[in-house]
Amino acid sequence: MTSQEAAGWTDMPGDGETVLWQGRPDARIVWNDIVSAQGAAGLLITGISLLGLSGLGNLAFADGVGVNRLFAFPLFHLPFLLVGLYLMLGPIFRDAYLRGRTWYKLTNRAAYIARDIRGKRSLARYPFEEMSSPDLHDDAPGSVFFAEESRVHRYNADRHSGPSRGTRTRTVRIPIGFRRIDDAPRVYRLIQDHRDEAQAP
Question: Does the structure show a pLDDT above 50 at 104?
Answer without folding.
Answer: yes
